[in-house]
Batch of 3 targets.
Target 1
Amino acid sequence: MKRGNFIESSVAGFVRALGRVLMSEEIANRRGLLQALDPRVRLMGLFALVLAVVLAHRLTVVLTLFLAAVMLALCSSVSILLLAKRVWLVVLVFTGMIALPAIFLTPGTRVAAFAGGALPITAQGLSAAALLIARVETAVTFTTLLVLCTSWTHVLKALRWFCIPPEAITMLAMTHRYAFLLIDTASQMFESRRSRTVGHLPRAALRRMTARTAGVLLSKSIALSDEVYLAMQSRGFRGEVHILSEFHMKAWDYVGLLAFLGAGGIAVWAGR
Amino acid sequence: MALLFDLQDVGFEYDGIPALRGLSLQVTEGESLALLGANGSGKSTLLRILNALCFPSRGSVSFGGQRLAPELLHQNGFGLAFRRKVALVFQNPDVQLFNPTVFDEVAFGPLQLQWSKEQILSRVTTALELMKIEHLRDRPPYRLSSGEKKRVALASVVVLDPEVLLLDEPTSALDPRSQSQIIDLIQEWRGAAKTVITATHQLEIVEDIAGRIAVLEEGVVAATGTPAEILSNQELLLRANLVHAHRHSHGSYEHSHPHIHSHSKHEH
């Protein structure tokens, strides 16, 4: 994709993201350990484990939690290859860049040196960098497992149990719903324009066309929001959101919740 | 039958562009009326005014003898009763499907009307069964086909068991089978003595869905009558852009005449 087409490439990226979301819904419908639990337990349990990762100060504890995340993924029909490509590699690159200076700047026992001793690597620096990377990798793995094993609708419903105002949840749900619709519209607009364009347009013309497309999309989204509001009013919406919950906790869910909270508590205690 | 809607000299504009220009129309209880008109004739605007989603800039609209006004709709008693009685299915189902799942979508109306949880669960299940979409219950709307979206949109108003159904192009963009199923549903509602007002430009379905037709032309009612009276008035249909002059030749002589694509009766 040419540089001038950055918006078009962004829209294409959103469309790919939409495809990934649809795939994650497929994972959420598979049989597995996490999928068998009530979404509220998944949300609360995985949040407790993320909290434990953040509070643990020992690398061994964080690595144990990472191992637990891998086991949880395997028991929940989540591909390790998918996690490696989508999470571990990306996190390693970004966190690695942040952690790299710590290896050289943290004072302590020198284990190696570069540039004739001007860039010393310390054991404490290595340890701090390893702890940071392990923490981020583990926390993001738990969060990804929640997203992959729980459909977005269940995440939203589960949020209702954590004192999040229903208005905020409704806004989130509608944003998610209409973001997809508008991304689809934008993608079709670019496709339609491409089908009527021969050769390459000059940069300035491309910029003007992109600005016009953005303007039209904005107008469409405003018109759509007006229509949606009318459709809500038509079915009795009067500014106050009423919601219904269908979740039922079973014995297995309580066992799962206790296991999550117990594991999180032990990790915090052992990693202090 | 008692008078349900009474519209007198109704005018409405969108940013100064007139959509309705002094429209007058009466609808009685239990009537099935088709609003027939070309694109831009004011059908959708009229349905919105009948559903009290917008109010005329001039003239008046009465429902059951009460003049519809924003203040009246904001009163809890009248507002909730009106929304329970009168339901609108929008032309574009994407507008109407704003909830995360099909179940939530169908339950939205009953929840806003503050029904009990048991009543909501039972009525939503019945509506999903009636529209044959139980299998879509937990699916998000963006993963549905056009026909399925239309069915969910219909279920979301059928669940309220309204006395008056306002349908905006209910069969547009649907395959023939889905069209036929929706026409069957409208006929069922007609049989159940509900008031059904359908906006359409499809001449081939009006005989099946309505006992009376109002032809809209540039924001006014150009004519009303039975389907037989309206469909036989070629001049009116041509003027209202509901039929087109079909050009063809007989040897060296080429001419045009009004042409209806209508298949009202099929025998198999």
Note: Chain B touches chain A at residues 48, 51, 53-54, 74, 79-80, 83-84, 87-88, 90, 92, 94-101, 103-104, 107-109, 111-114, 117, 120, 138, 140-143, 156-157, 160 (CB under 8 Å).
Target 2
Amino acid sequence: MALNRKLAIVDLSRGKIEIKSIPIEVRKKFLGGRGLDAYLLYNHTKQGCDPLGPDNTVMVSGGVLCATLASATARTHVMAKSPLGGLLGSCNMGGFFAPELAWAGFHHLVIKGKAEKPVYLWIRNGKIEIRDAKNIWGKTVTDAQWAIRDELGDEDVKSLVIGPAGENLVRYANVMTGIKNSGGRTGMGAVMGSKNLKAVAARGTMDIKIAYPKEALDYNKRFIDQITSAKVNQTQGALGTPFIWGATNSWGGVRTRNFQYNQMLYCDEVEPESIDENCTETIGPYHMTGCFGCQVHCRAKYKIPTGPYAGKYDEGPEYTSQGAFSSEPDIPSLENLLVANHLVDQWGVDNLEIGSIISWAMELYELGILTNKETDGLELRFGSSEALLEMIERICFRKGWLGNVLAEGGIIASEMIGKNSFDYLIQVKGVNNLHSDERATPALALNIATASRGSDHLRSRPAIDLYHLPQEVMRKIYSSPVPYDGPLSSEHTEYIGKPWQVFWHENCYMGVDCLGICKYHTTFLGATLPNFEDWSRVLYYNTGLELTPREIWDAAVRCNMIERLFNLREGLTRYDLKKGDMLNHRYFDEPCRRGALDVVGRVIDREKFEKMVDELYEYKGLDKNGVPKPETLKRLGLEKEPSHLL
Amino acid sequence: MEYRVAWVKDGFPRIRGPVWDVNKRLADEAFERKMKEVKKDGPK
């Protein structure tokens, strides 16, 4: 049974491992994956702890549907207190690790303390061993995984690893698996590095019994039809996620030159079609590849065609790399994009964060806030591939004054650089925004301002808001599984109805993060894709856990609230520019200069924005300060947290 | 190199090359016009 997968508490300081069952009552309240991780974080992590100290706790998990007959249940989740913003740290990646962990007997790991020397965890069919990592420490992401396989003598071992960036405690280092499946955002790789934990390796052959296999298979056929017939997924299967960047850039929703422009011009080389045509020389006959149990196959494979890195193999680049290494620093070069993507994959650092922070530094350099003294003579100008690639290396290996400063993340870096550098930093809760520009899309602005892990598109973004869906379609989506008869607008530049959409998507995404399903199989990008009603059945057929769509929604609301409780405990306040639900002043003060004519000139209206936040707080059961009302906690069964049930 | 935006419509041509200049000019004109309107009306 999927539900009999265990939880292990690993104390690296004392070398002790405790294995526990997960009670069904806990499952019903927090499901699994990110939701149950949030419960464990709130219960196991010491308030106010140093994120890079031994009191921080790392959670690793797969979703409750992981490795069952349901589609695309490959997601691995990692959570801890973030060294980047000092609030919730959370990352989620595809690949093949989480299913292997489940076959090895586990859904959740709680990793505490700090090892005296570099170690890795070896998990094999119900047993966990802490092993010496002296032969693996210092290796890149791909080399580390192969070194583990060599050491264990098994090519089928799947590992979560950190690269040099994590070892060097770069505060936005990734946890990675495979060539490029990246647990990015919020620096979970740095937390692993601070514990001297290089990797978690798993190999399992413990079968997972499906509760109702015939029904599960039959229903999954319907899932596959939905998924493969959606135009958005067919496009992803051909061009990968870069199509999103191409579409968004065309109307003017892409940050360029940090935040000075909202569209990248003359970018033919890095358009999705160009990447598609140039990234065909690769290993094997297939241009695209996918994660465990997925029919979309959104990940391109490529060899770098030219320059000093010619012939190097990698995967992607995703649209996030297009934004980070092309539009934000304004470098219209395919080779630059492919090389930068390769470096961050191998050194294990968040592409969004590093591209964004270097572009911020480029703007500071052009303004004279940074000079050649701080850059050690490097001409840190927009459009310079040489400067971008050099800074990626300096940051990952903490070379030079500026490399070391930028490795600390935007907020600490702005304090070290001084002057008015913070005014130019596009971040929320210490996490730099991805490359999207939300000045013309109030719903998306509300999403990044209030997302639990900081500025982020994967926590509550109503991306389908950009499709101008007919009212009846929107009403159908947003009135289930809880009734909603308030206003909805098909116009993406509007403010009306957007707080409900953000609230709905926040719970939708938490639901799938608990189940372990990829967001590309949900209403994230496709209005016709599976939803709460489908998940209720899939959950029952695969695991026997009987929850109505409304009960899954309620669990998602509860899990989002415990993330909120954690953030409040660690210092979140509504209007704090560094730890609050607030946007940089540039969203309100600097109008869009590019893109579609109805986008040009737009800013976020501050008064309307505040009203949206108020309305969202109402839906979430928070007071005007963003703190949960006592009756909300009682309704969600959270009034006694931390309850220490596990 | 032939460009396409198949996800919108098969055979749909993509704006590229010199069209970026037209795009930029139209955006610049619209921006200037809207900024004048804002100044005339005053900040909201």
Note: The first helix of chain A runs from residue 24 to 30.
Target 3
Amino acid sequence: MSGPDLTVLVQRALQEGLPLVARPYAALAHQLGSSEEQVVAAIEELQARDLVKRFGIILKHRELGYRANAMVVWDIPDQQVDAVGATLGEEPCVTLSYRRPRRPPGWNYNLFCMIHGTSRDRVLVQLAALVQRHRLSFPHQVLFSNRCYKQRGAQYV
Amino acid sequence: MNTLSRQDCALLNAVQRDFPLDSRPFATIAGRLGMTEEAVLARLQQLEAGGAISRFGAVFRNGVAGASTLAAMAVPGERLDEVAAQVNGVPGVNHNYLREHDYNLWFVVTAADPQELALRLQAIRDATGLELLDLPMEQAYHIDLGFPL
């Protein structure tokens, strides 16, 4: 009889995006036939369940002039990858630092980090500084992106 | 083009995380920055219209709120636009980028659970006739605080 519960509907709305209006939670409540208090409570519940990594305005780097976006992939010995990943993750210019599985023989990189910058040269300078400062003498490759076919939020529900 | 003033940077740094849950959250943010609610909303709406804002919402945690992976494909140059469109046609695909490498198409695939994710990856293989690297996140070393400007 009933559809998905309010928390799921609110999560879906947060994936799609709320309107930029003075009372966004009231606007969403109106759309869902709920109340502002219930919508806020549902967001708080999602946060309390630790499902939300970040709540706010999500930007498009490219449109803001950060046109160079480099994914740097590293082949780090397994016993060192956690330490190096954490070190890179603390750097302000690094926006992501993840460990992923190797897929030999064609793909032997196990650490991925993302560096955004206003130009390709600036990104390479930042990377060179990281390599030198942390003595990162590991094989790595820089994959610049030159085109975005799609950027949107993940849709889990 | 969205040229950012110092005030824009302060505003965008203030709205990317820990967004207030007050009834009038933009008024709360405006108060912190010494701006008016109207000015904050007007500038954000302008940036949104200019394409600088992806959305006002939440980034959910991988794995907890569903299953996801990063996938890569080596696509022949002459098929790039066609394959990118085929990949984008599969539900749950986001962040689809062309990158300079033999593995030149990189995208994230999300689903409600691992079974559905496996079906979506297979749908991509079937639609494109190409193999893909399936590179799920094993460990995150960085907390997403947004993008400092």
Note: Residues 24 and 37 of chain B are 9 Å apart (CA to CA).
